[in-house]
């Protein structure tokens, strides 16, 4: 290929890749397989390597190219990035509506209502369709230039789409950079195990990730964006907010799919209530709704104050942050031996849930936040994430308890603890009752042997009463052993023994998961079972063989191999396999739902969204967030959102809750 040909092909590839990025990130409707996309991308990279002078800044290969900065440049916004007038009360909403109507001299007013996204506000500037600048909000007039960092966010187009609708030559946009809750939890897990300070919430994680001087770090953080406003754009053909949102979509930007057009207060209240109910099901955090006058000309009539526009109002949800007192800090030993300090608190209601304990993670976290028994603390709940202690609330003049320190001996078995990074660990893996109880609980858990009636309390009891010294002992328990124990009667004793017996016929992947091998979660257990097909084959697998399995990394391979070379583990395993019947893994897909994409919308009644997700995943299905042509089923609960319309439009199979449950049972789920 000569230079001219290469140039033409590169231009063509830019267009094709951009188009598929748009379908994937903006429309959530990919049309090609990942492998095909990778091939196009690789071809572009190869051509660019051959002709480096043909690399342009808007090339899809140029997302992560920037060098680390010493400081961020100051950037003046195209128009002030104002804040919002906000309140949680209906009365304040009424007053806002009255002011708007009075200001416009009409009662005939239309609003657009949108979720109030809890992220970091950014300005994106496109010059002739090419992203040239991005900045934080800063003081509203001047922000920090974070262009290189924003370029790493896959959902931000480096070049706008040229479609039917022309974009203005200079376009400044406003949007919110967010981090999805699952990505946030994973990031915090990574930070914690590296002994680093976790983020308090997804908003801080998004803002903190954007303000990294090294774009490589930002690139490693899973950020996302929703664009909702045109700050400046001479010649943009839109006269309403609704048209603005449609135009942004046309230009290839990612726009939230929840906004709605309404004309009355009751409709606004309904939307507010609806989103508050769905709040836990959304994949990202919102803290209210934003009510915006739809008509842009009307906005000019109303104008702005120095702080906020008079045409918009943030109608917030009641906070999920509360203040309460720490009664006690209690270390508890998990199944892996890690000793975690937990705060027992005076019960407090957080967004409809009563909370009385929170995880303080490790000794360094307690020290960093300087939390002591008796302190007043601010706690919060994000999504359905476990409550967290955000910070201590300083109380002037109050005498505080002494600093908390981790115990020197394991609270369960009195072994001397060891320190591993920020964590405190009990090394007595096989002799520590707390670790054994934890392992037993895990072995019996839903995704493992799924033994009905064997939860945390019972596991502790069985270990505490000396009925279980190692996992295999579980299968030797007789009803008469249980009957004298607290909380057991003849009937419950018999049913637990029966449940244990039934669970002893178990699929290999559930058994593997139940063993609690470090790094082996539900998905990896499935992968291993499918690959090795028998416990014997897996036990013998060499490190290289494990690493060659798709989805198993070097660290995982090492842990698995280490687990199967520990003599004590092998002795336990030998006794376990005498007691259980491992069901053969037959066929490749096993369940027939392997890799089928399932999307949920609306609330379910008989099980939580999380349980439904786990159930589907345990059968090999993939649960994704948005409907595309690739979606196998859309499961519709009460109050379905716009996903339903999309599924109908695309001809995706729609199931109600009962049909979903039947599908799961038909594929072998037992519940
Ligand atoms: S409009 C002039 N729409 O909320 C109006 N803001 O508390 C500008 N926010 O700084 C804002 N979601 O970062 C608007 N759908 C949405 C929003 C939104 C989140 C943020 C924005 C603003 C903050 C004000």
Structure write-up:
- This protein has 6 domains: about 5-60, Helix hairpin bin (Helix Hairpins); about 85-315, DNA ligase/mRNA capping enzyme (D-amino Acid Aminotransferase, Chain A, domain 1); about 320-420, OB fold (Dihydrolipoamide Acetyltransferase, E2P); about 435-505, 5' to 3' exonuclease, C-terminal subdomain (DNA polymerase, domain 1); about 505-585, Orthogonal Bundle (DNA polymerase, domain 1), CATH 1.10.150; about 595-665, 3-Layer(aba) Sandwich (Rossmann fold).
- The protein has 24 helices and 24 strands.
- The strands form 6 sheets. Strands 12, 13, 14, 15, 16, 17 and 18 form a 7-stranded antiparallel β-sheet that branches. The chain has a 5-stranded mixed β-sheet with strand order 2-11-10-3-9. Strands 5-4-7-8 form a 4-stranded antiparallel β-sheet.
- The longest helix is centred in the N-terminal third of the chain and has 24 residues, at about 5-25.
- The chain is globular.
So what's the oligomer here? single chain
Question: How many distinct domains?
Answer: 6
* Biggest sheet features: 7 strands, antiparallel
The fourth-level CATH homologous superfamily of the largest domain is DNA ligase/mRNA capping enzyme
* Contiguous runs where pLDDT drops below 50 for at least 5 residues: 586-590
Strand content: 15-25%
CATH architecture of the largest domain: 2-Layer Sandwich
| Radius of gyration (Å) | 28 Å
The shape is globular
Helix content, binned percent: 25-40%
CATH-assigned fold name of the largest domain: D-amino Acid Aminotransferase, Chain A, domain 1
Structural class: alpha+beta
Bound molecules: 2-(butylsulfanyl)adenosine
- Helices, by number, come to 24
- Using the coordinates above, name the CATH class of the largest domain: Alpha Beta
Q: How far is the N terminus from the C terminus?
A: 60 Å
Average of pLDDT: 91
Tell how many strands the DSSP assignment holds: 24
